[in-house]
Every structure is written in C-alpha cells, then in structure tokens.
Amino acid sequence: MYNLIERILRTQQALHNTDIDLLLIVGRENLIYFSGITQMECMAIIIPKEGEANVITLWLDVDYVEQQSGLKTFGYVFPKENLATKVIEQIKNYGINKPVIGFEKYFVDISIYEALRSSFPTGRFVSAAEMLYKIRSIKDQQEVFNIRKAAKAACSGVDAAIKAIRTGVSELDILAEAEYAMLKDGSNGSPFRPQIVSGERTLLTHPSSSRKKINNGEIVVVHLGATYEGYCAKICRTVAIGDIPQEQEKIYYILKEAQEKSINSLAPGITAGEVDGAARRVIELAGYQQHFIDIIGYGVGLRQSEFYPTIGKGRNDTIDVNMVVDLLLPTIFLKGVGGPRITDIIHVGEEQNEILTDYPRQLVRL
Questions:
Q1: Domain ranges of the chain
Q2: What are phi and psi of 213, to 5 degrees?
Q3: Model confidence over 60-114: pLDDT tens digits?
C-alpha cells in the first residue's frame, strides 16, 4: 500500500524551500500519486504549505475517494457548482488572500486558471512541475512492484509481437497480437502510442504502427508500453527479417554496447550526464556521434517518460537509490542503415541495479 501521508509531508517540506503557498493538483498522474486512486475524473487535490491536504471531487464520489485515499474530501454538485468554484472556496478556507499557487506545468484546465485569476487578482501562479517530478522520482516498494508488473506485461507483448512477425503481415496486425498479450498479462493499457514499425519508418522520431506490410531484408522495431495500477513500463527490441545490411546489424550491437555501459554506470550520486557519457563514448568511438541525439533516457513511473531525471548530454540531474529509468532511447539517425533500437527500464539499487524488462537483448533474426 502507498503511504500517501508521507508523500504529502515530503511535498510540504519541499514547499518550505519555495515561496509557494499551496499546490493545486489536477493532472491525472499527480492525482494518482497523492490519492492512490486510478478510477477518478473531475477531481483536484490542494496541498498547502501548512495544514491539511484536501480533495475536491463530484459529490457522488466523495465517500469512495475519502475511503480510498484517507484524505478529507469535499464534493461539488454539478452543474450548480463546478470544480473551479469549489477549489476557490477551499483555498479561501485556508485563509490565504494573496496566494502563490503552484501548478503542474502542462495539465491546468483554462477554465480553472481563469476562475482563479478572477478570484485572486493579486495572487501569483507558478510552475511546480520540476519539484513534483523530483518528488516522484524516488519510488517506494509498492511503486516498484507496480512497475515490475507492467514490465512483465510489456515483455509478454514483445514475445507475442515477435511470434506474429513475418513477411506480408501489417504492423497493425502484429500490434493487435502484442496488445492482446499485454492485456491478458495484466496490463491496464498502453501509456503511449505503440510502435511496431518497419523499414525506413524506423527512422521517424515518434512513429506509430501503420498498415505497412513487413518486407524481407528490413528491420522491425518493437517498442511497447504497459501499465499496472497507473504505473508504466516500456521495452524496445529489434527484429531482422532475413538478411539486413551489415552496417545496420553493426549499429544494433553498438547501441546495445552503449546501453550496457550506461546501465553499468548507473549508481547513486552520479549525474545523468555521466550516465549519458558512458553510452556516448561508445557511439563516438564507432564514429556515429553526428547521427546521435542528446537524450538517451528518462525517469519512468506514472509517465512513460518523466522529466526527472532526464538522462542526456551535460545533464546535472542526480541519480539516486530507488529511481527507475529507461535506457537507451534513440537510434543512429542515418538513412539506409540506421533505425535499430533497444530500450529497457532499470531500478537503481544501493549496490546493484535491476533490469525490470527481463527479456533477451540480442538482435532477433527471423
């Protein structure tokens, strides 16, 4: 079980190092983090610097939310009331007349923001996104358990996809088999658009599966994600159909070596830039540095790519015990031979790291 009170106390301690009076949480990921509930809509959580955190939700869900979260919960009767009016009412109950309100950077509904601006014209509104990502970056045992379950389902998806791959079959047909296998193995759904892509489409930055059919002599990239109780896992493997260009095969194993070096370098206290450097040196020695991007991984948790730590060139984010990160995200972006990819998620331990996506990492040949 989650220790939600401990999470709120850690957040309030972090608030004491800022001029923020309270956090307004409306994004789904942080709502899950602070309430422990995945079945919710139309909800907000207010975390003040001092005092008790409150939940606001539809009046029909008050008993359920309070029972599941253990947090004091207030309901609003829609359409007579709405989330914004109830949030404003609760902020005023804290006795803060000129609040400095911290928001999640990407998830604030404009109607809530406009209502707050109208009710608190002398208040200030600031981003608390980085602070929240840092708080979420250290996982407790239940979070690691959930990610491990999601990782197991993602591996089942890769296995099903590889078994379905053959010439003449479309990317979407292969994806259907993979998604079914992940759902059967406990996944609550994909956290991103799944990427079973082939041929030149593997060089697109964010491709998704299409009706393109698999051809002999090309690679298929299988990049899948799964979720369990809101927590995400991802994995990527590369499949060679028949004979592929020798340099393309070489690139896969260069990326695999770069990934291994970065995983082995993960340790509490080092920077994300040092982890990146371990991988980047392999790429540079192979002569492909001009075709390689500056970020090789992110934190993993309630998002498939969280923004702390960001593992990339020159990044100063500090790696710590019980972080979960993904490595190695990019490919060598070189037309004709680039495109292979490999990605795993890793739990950072005090003495030893654990690769949670436990699936063979050799180039698959069909």
A1: 4-136, 138-365
A2: -95, 150
A3: 999 999 999 999 999 999 999 999 999 999 999 999 889 999 998 777 788 888 9
Q: What are phi and psi of 195, to 5 degrees?
A: -125, 90
* Bridge partners for 326 per DSSP: 345
Q: Is 296 strand, coil or helix?
A: strand
Cβ-contact 71, 53 below 8 angstroms: yes
For residue range 10-45, list pLDDT tens digits in order: 999 999 999 999 999 999 999 999 999 998 889 999
Q: Give me the CATH code for the 138-365 domain, please.
A: 3.90.230.10
Residues 122 and 99: their CA atoms lie apart, in Å, by 8
Q: Are 150 and 228 in contact (CB under 8 A)?
A: yes
DSSP string, 66-110: HHHH-SEEEEE-TTTS-HHHHHHHHHHHTT-SS-EEEE-SS---H
Q: What burial letters (b/e) apply to 6-16, b meaning 16+ CB within 10 Å?
A: ebbeebbebbe
State how far the Cα of 58 lies from the Cα of 15, in Å rounded to an integer.
28
CA 325, CA 224: separation in Å to the nearest integer? Answer: 16
Do the beta carbons of residue 217 and residue 244 sit within 8 Å?
Answer: yes
**Residue 42: strand pairing partners:** none
Separation of alpha carbons 14 and 7, rounded Å: 11
- Measured in whole angstroms, the distance separating CA 39 from the mean position of its chain's CA atoms is 19
Q: For residue 245, say if its preceding peptide bond is cis, omega within 30 degrees of 0.
A: no
Q: Looking at the domain 4-136, which fold is it?
A: Creatine Amidinohydrolase; Chain A, domain 1 (3.40.350)
What share of the chain in percent tops pLDDT 70? 100
For residues 319 and 335, what is the distance between their CA atoms, to the nearest angstrom? Answer: 34
Per-residue pLDDT reduced to its tens digit, 257-284 = 999 999 999 999 999 999 999 999 999 9
